[in-house]
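re: the backbone from monday

yeah here it is again, tokenized this time
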């Protein structure tokens, strides 16, 4: 039987990507395939990534280049989000492709007796094979068992690396001999034994101007409510303490089957066992629309973590983002959630440096520290084929200055700020200026 190696990476949406890869990992394991920890020992190399912006797209292309040139005798499959998010990638003739909405193709290729649609994920796996940038496992794995490890590399992404294109891979004009693999020990690591991951819906019910998710999943697909409840009941009956809902937006649940987020939550709240729900991710519009119909005891007893993707505190920028909710109303709901249970960890995300953003709008983001236990400050980054790609951008100097301000604020407020804000090259400049 064939041996298989899985590579999976994305620093923007790593949890979702590793969840997808773990589904494939479990499918192969349960169907008797041997998963190897080094690509040289594999018959098939499976590559998954989430190229959220142009910079990450270059990292994916660098990884593809490495495997295509190092293991020319292997069968290579690109799966997940990358086949749809990287324009023109399907022109590379030596690759096979399985998009996120076509996972049933794994059944056809690998002839499993257990279908991939029947696979459930207990502990997600972390796949970290290439030394393309410094990786702090605390940042990536959060509370996983391996969070005390740190992988470091001297590899620095150069301007030459960023020049890589689909054409340069196909015609052989791109050359790089510096990319290396980590030791096999760092591949296929497991998350905490207490965590059970579940999808309630696939895709997102919105079309944000800066986001390429619609290229991955054009329509929202909600899973049957009875299946979701059955999965959670099974998980808690065998010891799961944390049910992690890993959807792109759990709030979109039901919009395709005449149900809604509140209906799902109230059904989950009826499950009597002792467990906690963690939401990755919750779009504020659905929270506003459904909050008044969710039983307060759900927030009091069931929820331990919710990542609410606010994205901005400016109503003007929110309109440019093609998002529609009242920011003050969202923040008032967050205050109510904390009144129900002060121990709930509320985490938010803002995108700073968004096209046309003023310094006053940027400065206003720091008031979120009053409402959230932590806020990710994520720097806006372009992605081709999005509506904001041709909008007027902040200058590189403005982005660096704003990044410095965020670092200074982190020095003051500590863990309440998480600066997920720059590429490795820019990070060195900023840190040198800050310290």
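seq for it, each position gets an aa:
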């Amino acid at each position: 039987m064939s041996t298989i190696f899985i590579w999976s990476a994305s620093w923007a949406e790593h949890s979702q990507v590793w969840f997808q890869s773990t589904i494939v990992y479990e499918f192969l394991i349960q169907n008797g395939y041997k998963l190897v920890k080094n690509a040289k020992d594999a018959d098939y190399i499976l590559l998954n990534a989430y190229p959220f912006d142009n910079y990450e797209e270059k990292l994916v292309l660098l990884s593809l280049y490495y495997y295509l040139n190092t293991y020319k005798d292997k069968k290579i499959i690109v799966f997940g989000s990358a086949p749809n998010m990287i324009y023109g990638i399907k022109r590379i003739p030596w690759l096979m492709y399985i998009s996120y909405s076509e996972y049933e193709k794994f059944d056809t290729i690998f002839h499993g007796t257990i279908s991939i649609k029947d696979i459930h994920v207990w502990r997600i796996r972390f796949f970290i094979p290439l030394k393309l940038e410094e990786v702090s496992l605390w940042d990536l794995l959060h509370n996983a068992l391996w969070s005390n490890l740190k992988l470091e590399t001297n590899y620095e992404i150069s301007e030459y690396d960023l020049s890589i294109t689909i054409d340069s891979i196909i015609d052989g004009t791109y050359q790089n001999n510096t990319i290396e693999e980590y030791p096999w020990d760092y591949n296929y690591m497991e998350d905490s034994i207490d965590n059970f991951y579940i999808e309630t819906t696939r895709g997102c019910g919105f079309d944000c101007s800066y986001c390429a998710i619609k290229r991955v999943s054009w329509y929202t697909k909600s899973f049957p409510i009875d299946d979701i409840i059955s999965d959670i009941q099974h998980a808690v009956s065998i010891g799961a303490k944390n049910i992690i809902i890993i959807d792109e937006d759990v709030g979109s649940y039901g919009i395709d089957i005449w149900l809604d987020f509140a209906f799902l939550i109230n059904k989950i709240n009826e499950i009597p066992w002792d467990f906690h729900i963690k939401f990755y991710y919750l779009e504020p519009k659905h929270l506003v629309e459904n909050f008044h119909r969710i039983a307060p005891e759900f927030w009091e007893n069931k929820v331990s973590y919710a990542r609410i993707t606010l994205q901005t505190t400016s109503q003007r920028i929110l309109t440019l983002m093609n998002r529609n909710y009242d920011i003050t109303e969202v923040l008032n709901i967050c205050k109510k959630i904390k009144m129900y249970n002060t121990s709930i960890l509320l985490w938010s995300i803002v995108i700073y440096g968004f096209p046309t953003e003023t310094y006053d709008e940027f400065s206003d983001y720091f008031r979120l520290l009053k409402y959230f236990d932590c806020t990710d400050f994520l720097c806006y980054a372009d992605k081709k084929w999005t509506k904001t790609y041709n909008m007027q951008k902040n200058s590189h100097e403005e982005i660096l200055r704003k990044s410095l301000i965020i670092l200074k604020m982190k020095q003051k407020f500590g863990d309440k700020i998480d600066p997920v804000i720059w590429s490795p090259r820019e990070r060195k400049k900023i840190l040198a200026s800050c310290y």
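Residues 142-147 have pLDDT under 50 and may be disordered. The first strand starts at residue 3 and ends at 9.
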